[in-house]
Amino acid sequence: MVTVLVPGALRTDTAGESRLSVSAAGTLRAVLDEMDLHWPRLTRRIRDEQGKLRRYVNVYVDGEDCRQSGGLDTPVRDDAEIQVIPSVAGG
């Protein structure tokens, strides 16, 4: 089981849940595909129409930035923790 930590800004798409349990593992893509079955609005905020990670969303697998470790093909072990962090803009 993989744990996905959801920040407050995205919890409207998870009925207020801050921690999601996802049965998929293997790659980040597999986890997001499984999430899409249960929380499609959330995954649309993480991935674009082509299925790629959105530029303004950072995803960490066990503390490692997935953009530095394979993107959607980042390995995800069975008991991994994934953190989703939307970028904050402002002046």
Automatic annotation (TrEMBL):
<dbReference type="Pfam" id="PF02597">
    <property type="entry name" value="ThiS"/>
</dbReference>
<dbReference type="InterPro" id="IPR052045">
    <property type="entry name" value="Sulfur_Carrier/Prot_Modifier"/>
</dbReference>
<dbReference type="InterPro" id="IPR012675">
    <property type="entry name" value="Beta-grasp_dom_sf"/>
</dbReference>
<dbReference type="InterPro" id="IPR054834">
    <property type="entry name" value="SAMP1_3"/>
</dbReference>
<dbReference type="InterPro" id="IPR016155">
    <property type="entry name" value="Mopterin_synth/thiamin_S_b"/>
</dbReference>
<dbReference type="InterPro" id="IPR003749">
    <property type="entry name" value="ThiS/MoaD-like"/>
</dbReference>
<protein>
    <submittedName>
        <fullName>Molybdopterin converting factor small subunit</fullName>
    </submittedName>
</protein>
